Amino acid sequence: MTIVILGAGDLGATVARQAASADIAARVVLVDDASAVAAGKALDIAQAAPVDRYATSLSGTGDESVVTGAAIIVIADRVAAGEWDGDAGLALVARIAGLNQAAPILCAGTHQSALIDRGVHELGVARTRLFGTAPEALRAAALSLVALEAETSPADISLMVVGRAPHEIILPWESASIGGRRAVDVLAPPAITRIEDRLPRLWPAAATVLGSAAARVMRSMVTRAPRAHALQVAVAVGPSAPGRSAMLPARVHPQGILRMEPPPLSSRDRVRLETALAR
Q: Which of 10, 60, 217, 259 is the least crowded, having the fewest Cβ atoms under 10 Å away?
């Protein structure tokens, strides 16, 4: 299996490093106009293989056509121009969707929500195929904040994030749990307020955190892990309304999103989500 990462900037290199160390693919390819830089970063990551004990082959190139044989395609950041977004990003999605008509396309950056919207609503790429993984990094931050307040491990916490970062981040507390107990029975209201106040300041996430989030989602895709991830997914607001993307929980499989799993929302949170999508 081959994973192709479009962009060999800090984020692209981090995704490559995390994907390689997870040992979920036989081959990882970094693609960037700065092909020498892409090749050099791939070589640096490959040299860590004996230490970290992974067998993934890594290479770098400037040729986008390598996406043709990819099982997963990741859109990251360019060495010279940062995250793929805007019209250039949309043109990239059109090219790679034409070259490879089956592989899921993951947007790993924090500024690619509009790219997901436009790719789905303007180019017609299936929303189960084109989606973002950055919200999973925000969910990891939320788990850490809750763990600090509850004095427990993030592994003991079940919590999702929905909405639109950074101003409409919704934590569905009624469906959250800590150590098997309802989160609202463990955390006092002031603690919940502190968490909700701090979380927007952790956006945008750093490249290392975003890379880890993308790798977690890809690992679940490859292994068909039965867990939901927070993803940036294109949604239709209404028959005549423009498309939007939002952070929503979903399960994944090798072809992309398997199914959406929206958490129960209170009346207040439902209104907040609808308002965020309508803006």
A: 259
